UniProtKB/TrEMBL annotation:
Residues 74-233 form the tRNA (adenine(58)-N(1))-methyltransferase catalytic subunit TRM61 C-terminal domain. One of its GO terms (cellular component) is tRNA (m1A) methyltransferase complex. S-adenosyl-L-methionine binds at S104, G105, A106, L107, E125, D169. CDD domains: AdoMet_MTases. Pfam families: GCD14 (PF08704), TrmI-like_N (PF14801). The keyword Metal-binding does not apply. This is tRNA methyltransferase. InterPro entries: SAM-dependent_MTases_sf, TRM61_C, tRNA_MeTrfase_Gcd14. Keywords: Methyltransferase, S-adenosyl-L-methionine, Transferase, tRNA processing. Transmembrane segments: none annotated. One of its GO terms (molecular function) is tRNA (adenine(58)-N1)-methyltransferase activity. GO terms for biological process: tRNA methylation. The keyword Nuclease does not apply.
Length: 253
C-alpha cells in the first residue's frame, strides 16, 4: 500500500519515469499536473490522472530505479558488473561484506539488497564529499539499517574482525591484501573491480606474496549486448556500453 512519505515511480504512456515522494502536493509534468495525495492508501500499480486526463502508473521503485535517479559522485559500478560480482562470489542473504570505496553507493546498494535484512555491508570511503553522497543514497534506497559507511581509508586497515567477502572498487586493491588475509573467512571472496589492465597487472604482481592464502584467481569482464525489438526489424543495438572494468575474484583458502 502506498503511504504518505513513500517513494513511487510514476511511469507515463511514453515510458518516461519520475521518482517522487508521495505527499499532499502537486507534481508538474509536461503531460499535466498530478495530485500526488490521491495515491495515499492505494496499492502500487494504481493509475493516477493529470488535469489533462493523461494517465500515469505508480510503481514501487526497485534498486535500479533508485540508482538511475540518485545523485552521483564518482562513476558507479553498472548492474552488469554488480550482477556478476554477486553471482560469482556467491553473495547470499545474511552475509557480512566489507566494501571500499563506497563512491556514489551504487555497488553498496546492490550488495545490501543481496545480503538482505539479516546481512551487513560495511563500506569505507576516504573522501568526505563522496561519503555524504553515498550515505544519502543508501538512505534513499532504504538500506541504512544494514549498511555502515565509514569515512576512512581502507588502506590503513580493516576495523572488523571477520567478513564473508571483501569487495573493492578503488585504485589500488593490492594495498588491501595484507588486511584481507586476516579478516576474510576461508571460502570467502576478495573481489577487485578495476577499470584498467595495468591495475590488474600491478595487483597480480603484489599477489605473488599472498598466493598461498588464495585459490587460483579468475579475471572477467562483462559485455552485455542489448537488442532492438521492433516489428519490422529485430537486431543488436548499434551502440553498447562496452568496457567498464576488469573484475578479479580470489577465493580465500
Ligand atoms: N563502487 C562505487 C559505486 O558503485 O558507486 C564507486 C566507487 S569510485 C569509482 C571509487 C571510490 O573509491 C572513490 O569514491 C574514492 O574516493 C574511493 N577510495 C579511493 N581510495 C580509497 C581508500 N583507500 N579507502 C576508501 N575509499 C577509497
Amino acid at each position: 500500500m502506498i503511504e504518505k512519505g513513500s517513494r513511487v515511480l510514476l511511469v507515463d504512456k511514453r515510458g518516461k519515469r519520475y521518482l517522487v515522494k508521495v505527499e499532499d502536493r502537486e507534481f508538474h509534468t509536461d503531460l499535466g499536473i498530478l495530485k500526488l495525495g490521491e495515491l495515499i492508501g492505494k496499492p502500487y500499480g494504481s493509475r493516477i490522472e493529470t488535469h489533462k486526463g493523461e494517465t500515469f502508473v505508480a510503481l514501487k521503485p526497485d534498486i535500479n530505479d533508485i540508482i538511475a535517479k540518485m545523485k552521483r559522485g564518482p562513476q558507479i559500478v553498472h548492474p552488469k558488473d554488480a550482477g556478476i560480482i554477486i553471482a560469482y562470489a556467491g553473495i547470499s542473504p545474511g552475509d557480512t561484506i566489507i566494501e571500499a570505496g563506497a563512491g556514489s553507493g551504487a555497488l553498496t546498494i546492490f550488495l545490501a539488497n543481496a545480503v538482505g535484512p539479516q546481512g551487513r555491508v560495511i563500506s569505507y570511503e576516504v573522501r568526505k564529499d563522496f561519503y555524504e553522497i553515498a550515505r544519502k543514497n543508501i538512505e534513499l534506497a532504504g538500506f541504512s539499517d544494514r549498511v555502515t559507511i565509514k569515512n576512512k581509508s581502507i588502506y590503513d586497515g580493516i576495523d572488523e574482525e571477520s567478513a564473508d567477502h571483501i569487495v573493492l572498487d578503488l585504485p589500488q586493491p593490492e594495498n588491501v591484501l595484507p588486511h584481507a588475509v586476516d579478516v576474510l573467512k576461508p571460502g570467502g571472496y576478495f573481489v577487485a573491480y578495476t577499470p584498467c589492465m595495468n591495475q590488474v597487472h600491478r595487483f597480480f604482481q603484489a599477489l605473488q606474496e599472498y598466493r598461498d592464502y588464495f585459490m587460483r584467481p579468475r579475471v572477467v569482464e562483462v559485455l552485455v549486448r542489448e537488442h532492438e525489438v521492433k516489428k519490422e526489424c529485430m537486431r543488436p543495438k548499434t551502440t553498447m556500453l562496452a568496457h567498464t572494468g576488469y573484475i578479479t575474484f580470489l577465493r580465500k583458502l
